[in-house]
Amino acid sequence: MASQYVLPSVEIARLASPYIELLIPKLTGKHFIILYYLLPYSLIKLKYGRNIKVLMDLEKLRRDVIEIEDEIIKIRRQIHENPELSYKEYNTAKLVADTLRNLGIEVKTGVGLPTAVVGTLKTPRPGKTVALRADMDALPVEEMTDLPYKSKEKGVMHACGHDTHVAMLLGAAMLLVKNVDMLSGEVRFLFQPAEEDGGLGGAKPMIDAGAMDGVDYVFGLHIFAKYPAGVFATRKGPLMATPDSFKITVHGKGGHGSAPHETIDPIHVSLLIANAIYGISSRQIDPVQPFVISITSIHSGTKDNIIPDNAVMEGTIRSLSEEVRKRALSYMEKIVKSICDIYGAECKVEFMKDVYPITINDPEVTEEAMKVLSNISKVEETEPVLGAEDFSRFLQKAKGTYIFLGTRNEQMGCVYPNHSSRFCVDESVLKLGALAHAALAITFTNMK
Ligand SMILES: [Zn+2]
Ligand SMILES: [Zn+2]
């Protein structure tokens, strides 16, 4: 595995280049072998500005992360036992701020939200600013595992693995403080509340409060039961969807169940709307585009012989392209209006405002990030998923990559999906996540 990038003397390459041109006709196979070894060194110098002997010693980072592995797991278990819901991550935020301060990292708390924490690690060397993000909130799920450190909070569980995100990023902070000589520029540690909220979310208030000001690159990791333990998975371009929640209200005219002709039946109108909007995915959207509409609730009526006045339907639309999304939303409005006009019902379509945008990984940064990760563990190119993430908002402010880290382990019984009450994590992957964060920070702060 390529663990050390020993930088060449750029001077040698520069001074040698005119002679190499003159010599090309006389070059033998031996000379080409020498050039073959010189060239990558020169390219590294062009890419990374820093003229140091060793840019990143991955073997040292690997040794260091083994030393702190127990501590990372201990932090994870402490957070797992004491999960906190979105916007209420007070104790988690305190643990984060205390740990960062003990490492000598500059800490700001209450960045946009009371529980948001930003740590800053500056170096004296000029370089890029790299932000690393971990979300901190748990879910309203009753934990059904029998782990010795299972949740002590009734009805609250870290079922999406955000406890591991916090622990891995704190592990990275420990690694980077210890190996600060490998860094240039600045590393920003973003500990974000309320990713699971799905509405406002924690990323936006943090960005509005300046957490991303001056950031050149941003990276985030999500633990994911879909992939085998220790496998990194990501892709260039769209990775996760934008979630458009909708609510359709049909105001009809109630009456007796035996005389529907004297009413405007909102249930009948709602069923026609439901059938028609399911046609959007099959008849209005390019079938090769990832897209889904789900109606997830319909509420109306009270009794078998009463036609009610109103009906309300709610659901979600997921898409990976802004064009597809706009087309779907516009068709939904047209369908609702047309059907309601025919039956004389008054209808309203409401879409949730300011939803999480599409998570779009920068192609060049992702390619580079995948190379870095491939020195740590196996890397797979993943298909997009139609879940949503407000890491997307950070990606609108700086180039970067969102990466999944697999935790599926059949032998340990870690086979349940994220958000399941039986979700569990193979903790041996946590050191890989810490290492990945640290290696990405070192590589990208040193980027020219
Ligand atoms: Zn989740
Ligand atoms: Zn999550």
From TrEMBL:
The keyword RNA-binding does not apply. Transmembrane segments: none annotated. The keyword Manganese applies. One of its GO terms (molecular function) is metal ion binding. This is N-acyl-L-amino acid amidohydrolase. Mn(2+) binds at residues 160, 162, 196, 222, 419. NCBIfam families: amidohydrolases (TIGR01891), carboxypep_CpsA (NF040868). Its cofactor is Mn(2+). It comes from Thermocladium modestius. Belongs to the peptidase M20 family. Gene3D superfamilies: 3.30.70.360, Zn peptidases (3.40.630.10). Can release basic, acidic, aromatic, and, to a lesser extent, aliphatic amino acids. InterPro entries: Amidohydrolase, Bact_exopeptidase_dim_dom, Peptidase_M20, Peptidase_M20_dimer, Thermostable_CP. The Mn(2+) ion enhances activity. The lineage of its organism: Archaea, Thermoproteota, Thermoprotei, Thermoproteales, Thermoproteaceae. Pfam families: M20_dimer, Peptidase_M20. Keywords: Carboxypeptidase, Hydrolase, Manganese, Metal-binding, Metalloprotease, Protease. Residues 245-339 form the Peptidase M20 dimerisation domain. Homotetramer.
